[in-house]
Design goal:
Layout: E1 3-8, E2 11-17, E3 27-33, E4 40-41, E5 46-52, E6 55-60, E7 65-70, E8 77-79, E9 83-90, H1 106-115, H2 152-157, H3 176-185, H4 203-212, E10 233-234, E11 248-249, H5 254-269, E12 272-280, H6 282-294, H7 302-316, E13 322-327, E14 331-336, E15 342-344, E16 346-348, E17 351-353, E18 356-357, H8 365-380, H9 386-389, E19 394-398, E20 417-421, E21 425-431, E22 434-448, H10 454-469, H11 471-475
Parallel strand pairs: 15-19, 19-20
Antiparallel strand pairs: 1-2, 2-9, 3-5, 3-8, 4-7, 5-6, 7-9, 10-11, 12-22, 13-14, 15-18, 16-17, 20-22, 21-22
Amino acid sequence: MVTAVTSQGNTAQKTFMLPDLGEGLTEAELVRWLVAVGDSVAVDQPIAEVETAKAIVEVPTPFAGTVAVLHGEAGATIDVGTPLITVSTASAEVTPRGPEVTPTGAEDYRTEERAGAKAPASEAGSGNVLIGYGTPGGTAGGRTRRRKGATPSSAAAMTEPERTTAPTQAARVVSPLVRKLARDLGVQIGSVVGSGPDGLIMRRDVESAGVTSAPDGGTSVPDGVTSAPQGVTSAGGVDARTGLGIAARTPVTGVRKAVAQAMVRSRTEIPEATVWVDADATALVDLRQDLKHRDPENSPSLLAFIARFVLAGLVKYPELNTRIEGSPGDGQEIVQFDGVNLGFAAQTDRGLVVPAIRGAHMMSARELDSELRRLTALARDGKASPADLLGGTFTLNNYGVFGVDGSAAIINHPEAAILGVGRIIERPWAVDGELAVRKVVQLTLTFDHRVCDGGTAGGFLRFVADAVERPGSVLADL
């Protein structure tokens, strides 16, 4: 655990550094404090809400005591590895021995934590898996590591005295977000085999374990989650470039910052190409109207049907359900998945988010419709958990709701493709050599040209378009 420990009289102060909440994030925005100076806190008690990677996450304290210092105010951006909260504890709870860790900046912290270090002995605690530091109850102790410049003998002098109870091996995971994800997916963190350095459990390991386990339905989320302040400030003066007055300056933070970074990374790293086609959706619209007439409360939406067609298409063209990863020797490899977690773009008051329907390939159109509605409601209410917003392998983007026909969407990095669906409108269409008014939709596929060629992308898009035009022939095989 990365803390700074100081001792004075009968009390000691521990400073908890902001952990990496998302395996690679460098900062987080403080939404609000859940405690105040002078409050008593227990191990694993949530102390603050922070926003990063499109989700609001509660950060728990890894030790008990009285809040001494809150490092930062609501709306502030805090770097990973810098102080978050300082707690005063009784001397009986911690043996004063000087600084346990001398913080040298976020980079040193991140290097140690993400490397996994060596298996630490666990501190006394509840064992709550929300904390990313291994706190199985029933043991006491702490982790020490050699300070810069210390000799092996001096490091040994800092070691705790021998205990009568052997410490329990802590789970090899350091990110609170990874542990939160495991809890949301119902994954026993102790059963997960880590793929990171020294067996460190990474987010992808938990996601992989979650796909193989049966989903248990809804996910519990904390009450009272609110958005971070938007930070819009009035600004006077004149812009030197345009000569116009400056009406306002809005800091790029929170979800907007995460979206901006993701879009830049996608366009920078992925050599994308786009293909599109118009499809006659009249038969699909008629099918849905018939189902709605028969069962108004249980008829799938048009988007749910298209999602079902997409999933069938990915079975025929699995190259699009992949991602590019680095391999040993500075190489690259294409990772193909056994199943599909279908992401879909959802516009919310907090910005664009992409919830993922896990195990979508095993669902019917009705089941997909139910998940689309559930996750959309969570996203728009700001209550989507990290598990809801992570792990997608292919994205569906319905920009037709904005009244537009088409768009060359940006791929949701690190996925390999995204399918866009435009509005369905009446257009003149040739049917059996004669003009007719038909309901037409434009489908647009943007794909990573590294994972496949145009023939594969075109074949997939044509399959989905044919399914839209003749839904009965495809649904009969699903």
